[in-house]
Each structure stands twice: as structure tokens, then as C-alpha cells.
Amino acid sequence: MAKQTINIGSGELAGDGESLRSAFNKTNSNFNELYSSVITASNIASNLIPAANNIFDLGSSSTQWRSLYVGTSTIYLGGVPLSVGTNGNLLVSGNPVQGTGGSVNKLTSGTAKLELIGSVNPYVVFPSAFGESIYIQGNEVASANGNLALTSQGTVVINANVASTLTTWAFLTDGTIQFPDGTIQSSAYVSQPAGGEFTFTNTILSTPNLSFNNTSTQIVSGPKAYILNKISVSTASWVRVYISSGTQQNDLLRSIDVDPVSTTGIVAEAITTQSGTVVFSPGINGFNNETTPVSQIPVSVTYLGAGTASVSVTLHFIRLIS
Asked: Which class would CATH give 188-321?
């Protein structure tokens, strides 16, 4: 409604002005509009403070202000200060939320934590260049293109079983892998190191839980040619090392009291009644005899103890050819 103006007449007691009833009717209408409408102030020379704390709103979900212009001071959201630093970064409680490469934002100051929470579907998605994206859902970290790279200038450490015994796999800065038992193995076998000496190394494998006289067959990573020095086991077991997966399968039906023949393809076997290490002196030459030799060692493990158990096996050898 437009403002209504009262006709006060041409002079004092001239009799040509509005009646009192008409004048006060306009007065009431003007006051009613003032109290029921948003106040428009073209020049506010003091603080604009509401009559009560945390009750009134500035705009609404259906009637919104288009833009909000403030200086470089502070906006408080629930008591948390938002401000702008001297370099133009947005500050939350004084900590900068700054861009990395112009595409990814992260909270980097102090002990503050940036937490992204996603439901079961969809994933929390971190888009990156060239169409690649990283997805996080529950305990799973996945990649849109199927390849997930962990890159660090320092050591990459992967921990498991944190609630009980800490098991750590460390990918060291020189490209080697440190196993949970502290041993270190090269990520790629070499025929001979730069120092001119071959090196001792080992391969560790564990079977699923086995009952008495049950066998687990495995193909583990290892050099194409090596000298086998020792076999260590965690419990009573019968361990056989083969030259190929074919000879491994052909030997499955042989019983423990039958000696292998020359065509069996066994590099070595060890039978123990408890945990321990079987030492071969001199060492035994082993090699991979597939049509195209590969860096793999076929191993069969038979559990010989009571009840059920997982058997941990360590093959100690000197690698000759990668």
C-alpha cells in the first residue's frame, strides 16, 4: 500500500481539511503497514540489533535476499567465526580453507579435521583430472579406472589388526617392501645387485585353517632361479616346493611315507612334528620350469597337528635370477 497523506487544509480552522475520523483512519493504515512489512532503511547510522536473541530471521526460505555484502571482518555461524585472511583465503576459526591446484579444498591449519560422510550409495567421490575419480564407501577405497595409486615422498605404511596385535606392511622410499616380521624384500628381483653379491631373502605364506592331513596348494611370488637354504614352519606340517604348477598338481595324491621320483619335480620337502626350521646344507638349487619361466614358486602344505590350524611357512633362499 502507498503511504496515505492527511489533508490538513489551507489554514488554521479554515474548515477545508479532512475530518478527524478520516485522518486517524489513514494514520492507522500507515502504522499497520509499518508494523507488518519489512523495514526499508536507506541510511542506518548505528548497529542493527534485534529485540531478542536467536529468535528473528533475515529473510525466509520463500522470500530471500539476493546478495549479502560485508567487509573483511567476521561472520559468526553458531559461534564459529568465518573471516577472510590477508591472502584472500577463507578462515574458519582462524584456520585457512585453501585450494590445492585450484580444484581440491582442504582444511590445513591446526588440529581441525575435514570430515566427508557418505551413505551406502552413492560413494563419497573425489574427482580428479583425466576422468579419474576416487571413491570411498565404508571400508572400501576404489578407483573409477580400476588403478589406485598411493604416492608419497616418505614411507607408505599399511596397518592391520590395530585392536589387538599391530601388523604393519611398509612400502619404503627405496622401493622395497617391509613385511610384518621386519624382513625386507625388493619389489623387483634382480639377477645380481650392484655390489657384486647375491642377497639372502625369503618368501612368507600362510594357509587357511586346516584339519589333520588336509593340504593347501599355493603359488607364491619368488625368483625364477634360487638356492633354497631353509624352510621354517609355525606348526607340525609337511611342506613341498615344486618347479611348476603342473608337477605340484601331479604330486597331490602321493602320501607322506612315499618318496618322490625324479619326475615329480620337487625342489625340496620338509616334515616337522612342531614349529621350527629345517636347514638344507648345502643349499638346494631351485628354479621355475614353466614353458616360459615366471617369478613364482608352487608350494603345497599339509597340516600334521591336532584340531585345526593355519600354517605359516617361510622359504629362506638366495635369489639368483629374477
From this structure: mainly beta
